[in-house]
Amino acid sequence: MIYLVITAAAGVSDDVVTLAAEQLAGAEAPRRLSELAVEIGFRGAQPEIAPVAGVDFNFVPSGNRQKKLLIADMDSTIIPVECIDELADFAGVKDQVSEITERAMLGELDFEAAIDARVLLLAGLGEQALQQCYDERISLNPGARVLVQTMNALGAMTALVSGGFTYFTGKVAAEAGFQMNRANILEIENAALTGTVRRPILGREAKLESLNALCAERGISAKDVIAVGDGANDLMMVQAAGMGIAYRAKPALKAAADMVLDHSDLTALLALQGIAEADYMS
Fold first, then answer.
1. Tens digit of each residue's pLDDT (9 = 90 or more) over 78-96
2. Residues 183, 202: contact at Cβ < 8 Å?
3. Residues 133, 168: Cα–Cα separation, whole Å
4. What is the pTM (predicted TM-score) of this model?
5. pLDDT digit string (tens) for 12-68?
6. 3-class state of residue 258 by DSSP
7. Catalytic residue at 262?
8. Across the chain, where does the E strand assignment appear?
9. How many Å from the N-terminal Cα to the C-terminal Cα in the chain?
10. What is the C-alpha to C-alpha distance for residues 88 and 223, in angstroms, rounded to an integer?
């Protein structure tokens, strides 16, 4: 059995479901998971589904569908912004930093070199700007808290693993409900950023290492993991996971991911696992 999962932040209409079902051989009756998600089981060949504006279509195998570990990137995934770019705005260097961030997320730059270059531009920024940045610029993406709290309630481990900074991951993890978080540490002296990051820097390889370590700790395999991110530094953990999700992502990650979400909120990760709104927690 394979499931076609249809999701959209603006809602999935019955007309879209009917059109999709007509393209599936041996389709079962559609099951509505929420206003934003529908799944259709089928046993025939996996077709190319005709695209519909604002709607995501993903195929999900029926085996081992509900995962035991959620591991998520933070910037531009769980939250809508890149924290380092927003901090750079307070330092008056946002254009310079944003350009480096974009190239790093596209995979054009070495992540460690890119983070060093960006943080150096923040040297001298007052520590109070971190709190101001969080208060004024940081919020959860739609569906983030429901995703994390639901996974927690169903007995899964939830981990926020970011190439960003612990100052922000700690607060975002607490707001969303992640059980643990891991990120880079900004060096601060005399109440100001020094322009350096404590070693070792957490990047692409470290995200994969976190996934493997959490699997070992929980006695599960990578097949039991759902991983989500948006950029090139998420590539290895997304590829390793049993269900790897590219969320409003850069092309390199979309090409490597099992499933792509361009038009859905984060509750779509629950729908991909067959979890219905009746089981959502907030």
1. 999 999 999 999 999 999 9
2. yes
3. 9
4. 0.95
5. 999 999 999 999 998 999 999 999 999 999 998 899 999 999 999 999 999 999 999
6. coil
7. no
8. 2-7, 31-34, 37-42, 56-61, 69-72, 157-165, 180-184, 186-189, 192-197, 225-229, 243-247, 259-261
9. 31
10. 38
The verdict on whether 75 is a catalytic residue reads: yes
Q: Which residues contact 277 (CB under 8 A, 6 or more apart)?
A: 33, 34, 35, 267
Measured from the Cβ of residue 72, the count of other Cβ atoms closer than 10 Å reads: 30
Distances (CA, A) of 51 to 19, 137, 144, 266: 10, 34, 26, 20
The helix or strand, by DSSP H or E, that contains position 80, with its residue range, turns out to be none
Pairing of strands 69-72, 56-61: unpaired
Active-site option among 56, 73, 85, 258: 73
**Encoded tokens for 47:** 């077709």
Closest C-alpha to 70, from 220, 201, 183, 204: 220
Q: Which listed residue (56, 75, 230, 265) is catalytic?
A: 75
Compute the radius of gyration of the chain from its Cα atoms.
19
Quickly tell me which residue has 């969303």 as its tokens: 176
- pLDDT tens readout for residues 187-198: 999 999 999 999
Q: Can you read off the two tokens belonging to residue 118? A: 């960006």
Q: Are 263 and 12 a contacting pair, CB within 8 Å?
A: no
Tokens of 202: 């957490």
Cβ neighbours of 137 (radius 10 Å): 18
